[in-house]
UniProtKB/TrEMBL annotation:
<keyword id="KW-0931">ER-Golgi transport</keyword>
<keyword id="KW-0813">Transport</keyword>
<dbReference type="Pfam" id="PF09753">
    <property type="entry name" value="Use1"/>
</dbReference>
<keyword id="KW-0472">Membrane</keyword>
<dbReference type="GO" id="GO:0005484">
    <property type="term" value="F:SNAP receptor activity"/>
</dbReference>
<feature type="coiled-coil region">
    <location>
        <begin position="194"/>
        <end position="221"/>
    </location>
</feature>
<keyword id="KW-0175">Coiled coil</keyword>
<dbReference type="GO" id="GO:0015031">
    <property type="term" value="P:protein transport"/>
</dbReference>
<feature type="coiled-coil region">
    <location>
        <begin position="3"/>
        <end position="52"/>
    </location>
</feature>
<feature type="transmembrane region" description="Helical">
    <location>
        <begin position="228"/>
        <end position="251"/>
    </location>
</feature>
<dbReference type="GO" id="GO:0005789">
    <property type="term" value="C:endoplasmic reticulum membrane"/>
</dbReference>
<keyword id="KW-0256">Endoplasmic reticulum</keyword>
<comment type="similarity">
    <text>Belongs to the USE1 family.</text>
</comment>
<dbReference type="InterPro" id="IPR019150">
    <property type="entry name" value="Vesicle_transport_protein_Use1"/>
</dbReference>
<keyword id="KW-0653">Protein transport</keyword>
<dbReference type="GO" id="GO:0031201">
    <property type="term" value="C:SNARE complex"/>
</dbReference>
<protein>
    <recommendedName>
        <fullName>Vesicle transport protein USE1</fullName>
    </recommendedName>
</protein>
Length: 255
């Protein structure tokens, strides 16, 4: 089925949105959000059209639009850990949007977003680690003993806060890895189910073909049986007719 004008315009806009998502954007960048909103409207119109694309293609369009929408929502989060978790749960497209792409652009965008979130988390952790020694050195320069004691206590509080942050970051990373493993396990289960379903469909097709062949063979056999029976009946009728004529010739009518 040929693509409609609405579908062509949606594919062009989708490709433009993927290119914008792959770029390093300013916080004040508004085009991508407006474009994604327009994509959602076009997708709704495409689903309501009489000459709409195949269900698989519609599902792929929906997957890519949902990915871009989720990417924008993840970028609005304040914490880098929350951004990393939100990006981990996103599902990019499976097929390229245009013929020029070798791999789906949404997969590339997904990898870039995860790399940025990981870099932000690393920077925040390194910044927190370097903060305590700096405060410790500043607090001990040129201070009396009682103030040094207060500085040491403050240093201990900051160190405890740093340890708590590191522990929380490790737990969040562990949770992210667990979510990733669960997602991969679910994908493997779905893949195995699809393979089993495909095998069952192939077996059903083969059984249907065999049943069709056997039905044709049985039909031909039934036709042959009917033909033989017809010929036997004709021979019996002819034999009876000839026998009656011979009987009449041999035994003439009594006067």
């Amino acid at each position: 089925m040929a693509a409609t004008r609405l579908e062509l315009n949606m594919v062009r806009l989708l490709s433009r949105c993927e290119a914008l998502a792959a770029e390093r954007r300013d916080q004040a960048e508004w085009r991508l959000e407006k474009y994604v909103a327009a994509l959602e409207d076009m997708l709704r119109q495409l689903k309501n059209q009489a000459s709409k694309p195949a269900p698989e293609l519609l599902n792929e369009y929906s997957r890519k639009v949902d990915f871009l929408k989720g990417l924008l929502e993840a970028e609005k989060l304040s914490s880098s850990t929350e951004k990393a978790l939100a990006n981990q749960l996103l599902a990019p497209g499976r097929t390229p949007t245009t013929a020029k792409e070798r791999t789906p652009a949404t997969k590339t965008v997904h990898l870039q977003a995860k790399a940025r979130c990981t870099g932000q988390m690393r920077s925040e952790l390194l910044g927190t680690v370097g903060l305590v020694p700096l405060l410790h050195r500043l607090s001990l320069l040129g201070l009396p003993s009682d103030e040094k004691q207060s500085a040491v206590e403050l240093d201990a509080v900051l160190q405890h806060h740093q340890d708590m942050q590191e522990k929380l970051a490790e737990e969040m990373l562990s949770l992210a890895r667990s979510l990733k493993n669960n997602t991969l396990a679910a994908q493997n289960v779905i893949k195995q189910d699809n393979q089993t379903l495909s095998h069952s469909l192939r077996m059903a097709d083969q059984n249907f073909e065999k049943l069709k062949d056997e039905s044709d063979r049985l039909e031909q056999h039934a036709k042959k049986s009917v033909n033989w029976l017809l010929w036997i009946m004709l021979i019996v009728v002819c034999f009876i007719f000839i026998s009656m004529i011979l009987f009449i010739r041999i035994f003439p009518k009594l006067k």
